[in-house]
Amino acid sequence: xxxxxxxxxxxxxxxxxxxxxxxxxxxxxxxxxxxxxxxxxxxxxxxxxxxxxxxxxxxxxxxxx
Length: 65
Known about the structure:
Elements: H1 14-17, H2 36-54
């Protein structure tokens, strides 16, 4: 949600909601069909990638079932 309203469609909103070098906040959704252990492994890997490649800090994770 931004000043223009809600967004979320990856094709129609890609220019408006894309991540840039100036982005400071990000929400990511990981869908897991392999059970909780697979999800935890991917969350740890993704967090590491965010730190390495994006210099991310203050990463917060939540699992919703």
